[in-house]
Amino acid sequence: MISAQAYGENGKMKEYHYTGPVEHKFSPYAFNGGTVLAVAGEDFAIVASDTRLSEGYSIHSRDSPKCYKLTDTTVLGCSGFHGDCLTLTKIIDARLKMYKHSNNKTMTSGAIAAMLSTILYGRRFFPYYVYNIIGGLDEEGRGAVYSFDPVGSYQRDTYKAGGSASAMLQPLLDNQIGFKNMENVEEVPLTLEKAVQLVKDVFISAAERDVYTGDALKICIITKEGIREEIVPLRKD
Amino acid sequence: MFHCLPRSSVCENDSPPLFSQWSAPFLRSFMPEDSTHLSGGGIHGEAFSTRLPGRGGLSPLEFYMPIAEYLTESPINFGQTSLRSAPTNLLNIDHLHPSLPSISLPPPTPFPISPSVPLPFTLSHGTTTLGFAFQGGVIAAADTRSSCSGLVACPASPKVLPIHSHLVGTTSGTSADCALWKRILARELRLYQLRHRRRLSTGGAAKLLSHMLHPFKGTELCVAATLCGWDGDDEKDEEPITDKYGNISTNQVTSSGSNNQSTSTAAAASQPLISFTTQQVVESRSRICGPRVIYVCSDGLRLKGELFSVGSGSPYAYSILDSSVYWGMSVQEATAVAREAVFRATYRDAYSGNNVDLYHVTAKGWRRRERENLKEEYYREKERERKRVAERKAEKNKEKFNV
């Protein structure tokens, strides 16, 4: 839904003081909330998102997950403006098909990431208001996470949180997965069970403190056997 | 970790109009039978679309909204030169692009000043990068923090991007712009290398980048890059350049700067008979080969120099560099100075931090130093300060005792 500028930045309502006549400019963007997270392990990748779709003070839907399966080894998580998310995923699906038909093989995660970067930059002067994170397996079967900004700058990471609660989740992931800012710590490689449990805990904390995150959590676990999905309920208030 | 730039497969030249449709479907519906798309005729960059909605199946929105042509133009297709066009006319894009006129007028200038669409988010800015040339090559260094108005979007972003084997570019400004334009530049340089069988010089690459960015002057594109490279007839320059203090042997390359006199007098002292002619030879060669540092900005500025620092932390870096950099320094000294300059800048500037990336470009190509985390350096600095304070106290006590 396209909203007028009464909502201000980030979907939060503006203060109510009378400051004089205000000209409302039409803004083609809206902020629909949601948080996405991706973690890469030795031979797995996890992409998780909450399923709440909100705008301002309202909740549009409690069942709108933000993970989109692209290929058997790649999942895209996108949060931000839902309209742009939908269009972007349609474009990516179409480009994947075109590649499959002209090259006779599916796109690898790295190639999808590079392609997404150019798609986003193609709209440099009227960007897609979407925060993307791609999670998948690379050609060697190792987990890969690629994080993007709305205009297409990207790089490969081990873990990344994006969306409304990203500022809260990212430091926690830095500490628990990256072992940053800790002294005398034994750096054990992350197992799948531990990673899934960590993702669940982290989203439960995010739902407590961020109003735009909640309702349910959908986890996509990508291994060489395929993509498995899990749904975990979160706070609904 | 930035992937190494694909050498030849970046350009998807086959059908640019098709892909530009797929990137921005809302603006025009792709009707294959509409020949105006493919021949690029008719519209000469008008701000308003005067095509009637009935013809060609255009969406009704186009009839009402002004279209600034640059909004639809994908920056990625820009800059591609067709083989048939004159090599100097960089702005003559291939005829298939629908939004550009078919005659060689300059592309329509975009609507100036404010962006047409106010963005609800900010893009990443803030950095410290530097590049300088010395007798042992070129050093390019940068921090790795990518911030987004207060939030550190990425603590480990690469800001020094290799463009080809002998050219490295530091990036400052919006990281998406820098990454993409470096990629476009790499593609163009590779095409030049394949067509002309030699590498384009650093000055040529800088000019190319500057001209490619020119149509976007006035828009919110923000790229401030320092191109650091080594020009040369590569095969002959295989032997190491100099020893520690810049004593250059006569058939090697020197700078075109003021240090020429001192080094050539050193050479003259050892070989008095031929010194005059070799000085001439050396000078003329140095104009073609050697280390180069050139600063290119999306405002259109293009400066050749020996030392540049760009970004929010650059004033702090300049203070270290101006006092310590001189032409004859050794490689170890140069890397130490570069690292110290970035470290001091990260200490004082809030938008710079995390790690230091260092690249060293010589006649043999670029080499990357290990990325160094500055957190350790801060603790070492604190430790040294603590020791100094303790020493001073001990001395004071001794004095008191003696007196």
From TrEMBL, chain A:
Q: Taking the first listed entry, what is the main subcellular location of this protein, grouped into a coarse class?
A: cytoplasm
Provide the alphabetized UniProt keywords: Cytoplasm, Nucleus, Proteasome
Which PROSITE patterns does this entry report, sorted A to Z? PROTEASOME_BETA_1 (PS00854), PROTEASOME_BETA_2 (PS51476)
Q: Which domain of life is it from?
A: Eukaryota
Q: Where in the cell is it found?
A: Cytoplasm; Nucleus
Annotated GO biological processes are:
proteolysis involved in protein catabolic process
Q: Name one GO cellular component term.
A: cytoplasm
| SUPFAM superfamilies (alphabetical) | N-terminal nucleophile aminohydrolases (Ntn hydrolases)
Subunit (UniProt): The 26S proteasome consists of a 20S proteasome core and two 19S regulatory subunits. The 20S proteasome core is composed of 28 subunits that are arranged in four stacked rings, resulting in a barrel-shaped structure. The two end rings are each formed by seven alpha subunits, and the two central rings are each formed by seven beta subunits. The catalytic chamber with the active sites is on the inside of the barrel. Component of the proteasome complex.
Q: Tell me the function of this protein.
A: Non-catalytic component of the proteasome, a multicatalytic proteinase complex which is characterized by its ability to cleave peptides with Arg, Phe, Tyr, Leu, and Glu adjacent to the leaving group at neutral or slightly basic pH. The proteasome has an ATP-dependent proteolytic activity. Component of the proteasome, a multicatalytic proteinase complex which is characterized by its ability to cleave peptides with Arg, Phe, Tyr, Leu, and Glu adjacent to the leaving group at neutral or slightly basic pH. The proteasome has an ATP-dependent proteolytic activity.
Which family does the similarity line name? Belongs to the peptidase T1B family.
Q: This protein is called what?
A: Proteasome subunit beta
Origin species:
Cirrhinus molitorella (mud carp)
UniProtKB/TrEMBL annotation, chain B:
Where does the record place the region Disordered?
239-266
Primary location recorded for the protein, binned into one broad class: nucleus
Q: Which residues form a coiled coil?
A: 368-400
Pfam families attached here? Proteasome (PF00227)
Q: Which UniProt keywords apply?
A: Coiled coil, Cytoplasm, Proteasome
Q: Where in the cell is it found?
A: Nucleus
* Name by which UniProt lists this protein: Proteasome subunit beta
- Kindly list the GO CC terms recorded for this protein: cytoplasm; nucleus; proteasome core complex
Which GO terms of type biological process are on file? proteolysis involved in protein catabolic process
Is Coiled coil among this UniProt entry's keywords? yes
Keyword Transcription: yes or no?
Answer: no
Where composition is biased (Low complexity), the residues are 249-266
Instruction: Identify the species of origin.
Output: Cirrhinus molitorella
